[in-house]
């Protein structure tokens, strides 16, 4: 892990400043933690301590919800993103122009987000409607 990645993952912020930075309530933040969308560290006094990565993730959750994606859809997007990160080191470099699973997932995520943002059907919406409110 590079120095930048280590710094971004250091738990530095209590919930108060995180609420101000994200414009989320403490209840919303705890709810996302209950649903395992975020996992803040705990201080010795058992207070939640958030890293810059946690704050980025909360802002991403907020943006996705504003676009109409529900928690099930967000969990699926995060799962796919985590799988892509884990598989990136193991995947051989592709030399032909066949779409990789990663490219397909990015395309589907883009369509999900676009369909939610503009409130119109995408070519795959019939398969992803369960992710929208």
From TrEMBL:
Keyword Glycoprotein annotated: no
Keywords, sorted A to Z: DNA-binding, Repressor, Transcription, Transcription regulation
HTH merR-type domain boundaries: 12-80
Record-linked Pfam families: MerR_1
Record's keyword annotation contains Repressor: yes
PANTHER family registered for this protein in UniProt: HTH-TYPE TRANSCRIPTIONAL REGULATOR TNRA, REDOX-CYCLING DRUG-SENSING TRANSCRIPTIONAL ACTIVATOR SOXR
Name of the molecule in the record: MerR family transcriptional regulator
Species: Cytobacillus mangrovibacter
């Amino acid at each position: 892990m590079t120095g930048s990645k280590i710094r971004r993952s250091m738990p530095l912020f209590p919930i108060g400043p995180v609420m101000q930075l994200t414009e989320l309530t403490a209840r919303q933040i705890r709810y996302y933690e209950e649903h395992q969308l975020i996992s803040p560290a705990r201080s010795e006094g058992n207070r939640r301590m958030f890293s810059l990565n946690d704050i980025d993730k909360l802002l991403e959750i907020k943006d996705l919800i504003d676009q109409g994606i529900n928690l099930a859809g967000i969990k699926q997007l995060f799962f796919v993103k985590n799988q892509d990160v884990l598989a990136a080191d193991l995947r051989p470099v592709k030399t032909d122009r066949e779409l990789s699973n990663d490219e397909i997932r990015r395309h589907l995520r883009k369509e999900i987000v676009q369909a939610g943002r503009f409130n119109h059907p995408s070519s795959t919406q019939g398969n992803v409607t369960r992710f929208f409110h």
